[in-house]
Amino acid sequence: MASATVTTETIDPREAAHFGRMAADWWSPTGSSAMLHKLNPPRLAYIREQVDAHWGGDDTGFTPLVGRRALDIGCGAGLLCEPLARLGAAVTGIDAAPENIVVAQTHAQAAGLEIAYRAGGVAALGTDERFDLVTCLEVIEHVVDRPAFVRGVAGALADDGLLVMSTPNRTALSRVAMIAVAEGVGVIPQGTHDWHRFLTPEELTVLLTDAGLRVIDVRGLIVSPATGFALGASTALNYLVTAVRA
Question: Which superfamily does CATH assign the domain made up of 8-245 to?
Answer without folding.
Answer: Vaccinia Virus protein VP39 (3.40.50.150)
